[in-house]
Amino acid sequence: MARFPKPGEGSWTEHYPELGTGPISYQDSVSADYYERERNAVFKRAWLNVGRAEQLPRVGSYFTKEIAAANASVIIVRGKDDQIRAFHNICRHRGNKLVWNEKPHDETQGICRQFSCKYHGWRYDLDGSLNFVQQEGEFFDLDKSSHGLVPVHCEVWAGFIFVNFAAVPEQSLTEFLGPMVTNLEGYPFDRMTARFGYRTTVAANWKLFMDAFAEFYHAPVLHAKQSPEKYSAMAQQAGFEAPHYRIEGAHRLVSTSGVRFWEMDSELVKPMEILTRSGLFGPWDGVDLGEMPVGLNPAGCDPWGLDSFQLFPNFVILIWDQGWYLTYHYWPTSQRTHVFEGNVYFLPATTVRERITQEMAAVTFKEYALQDANTLEATQLGIESGYVEEFLLNDQEILCRHLHKEVADWIADWIADHEGVVVEVRS
């Protein structure tokens, strides 16, 4: 299969000398001060994916998103002109949270003609404009046209909805994503509307969980419990030492082999996987989605298995050659906790068997994610002890190096802009 660099051309990491090859510190994953810097320097400046356009199927459809790292709650809504917009979830009267159900900290969704505040009844149109004030004559020089909901920058790419909390975004969304990501345009994301979601709170820093899916060095060991003893050797043969890594700006990509375990050795699969013809790699009977965009399998891996596009700061799109995809989100809530969201997407099932294969893939994904999350909580405890200050990374962990350096660079830029000094931030 294709591999760059080729044998004799040096390691992956050596092709990105700015990343270095020495041990690294993980203080960026245990420091409360560092987390506060991330909130301002990263999560209030970068484009953040908050969902899919299919979540807003008709005029008046809306959902809310709680983003603790940006200290924000946003309403995302489809307007009467069919445009998707985002607003801060705050009433302009006395600051009450505008859209919520039983618990104001929970996210919600629905459909409406307008938004009405539960406190004093102020009402807002779907475009955010203020259209009704209870006892309007009691106010002094009130101009409703200047007191609509506060907008949040919102753009849509390939059906993915992004928001940006900067007063003026430094780049448009497509500029921020860059060609490595935008070359995925044409993939049928919009047709894959069968979604299975999973959400949990993980007692580990968000970057540590992103690191877990940025390398496959762990797979033959951590996930060997999922299969017989032969799994480890076969996993290595199948390409868990990924054949291709790529870094473009703030974003990363790893591609893996397409060797199928169920075709290689029957002992590597469980009876339930045989019955359902599905598992971690998705339904065994793949679907033909037609011509694929140029951005997929950029290294020409043959056979190809998946591409994991890791969009800075906290969003992953993972596309499988079997004709389905999944997304990961890592939403920081403190230096030692974050909310992990995983969503698995398929073409709508047309038979009961297809539905079963999709559910089997979704359940298997959840089991593997739980294995990773459990290990990372142990990692957090080890790093927080402080007895080991530097840690070794191998060549397969190049994307881990890049994420931590990228966050540090964003923080350094933010400090320089706000304090007028050149500063180097180390993790």
Layout: helices, strands, pairs:
Elements: H1 32-43, E1 48-52, E2 61-67, E3 72-78, E4 84-88, E5 109-111, E6 115-116, E7 123-124, E8 130-132, E9 151-157, E10 160-164, H2 173-182, E11 194-202, H3 206-212, H4 219-222, H5 231-238, E12 244-248, E13 251-257, H6 261-264, H7 271-276, E14 304-311, E15 315-320, E16 324-334, E17 337-346, H8 352-385, H9 398-419
Antiparallel strand pairs: 1-10, 2-3, 2-5, 3-4, 4-9, 6-7, 7-8, 9-10, 11-17, 12-13, 13-14, 14-15, 15-16, 16-17
Give the key terms.
427 residues; alpha+beta; Naphthalene 1,2-dioxygenase Alpha Subunit, Chain A, domain 1; Rieske Iron-sulfur Protein; 2 domains; 7-stranded antiparallel β-sheet; 25% helix; globular
Question: Can you tell me about this structure?
Answer:
The chain is of the alpha+beta class. It has two domains: 13-42 and 183-419, Alpha-Beta Complex (Naphthalene 1,2-dioxygenase Alpha Subunit, Chain A, domain 1), CATH 3.90.380; 48-168, 3-layer Sandwich (Rieske Iron-sulfur Protein). The chain is built from nine helices and 17 strands. The strands form three sheets. Strands 1-10-9-4-3-2-5 form a seven-stranded antiparallel sheet. Strands 11-17-16-15-14-13-12 form a seven-stranded antiparallel sheet, sandwiched between helices. Strand 7 and strand 8 form a beta hairpin. The model is unreliable at 226-232 (pLDDT under 50).
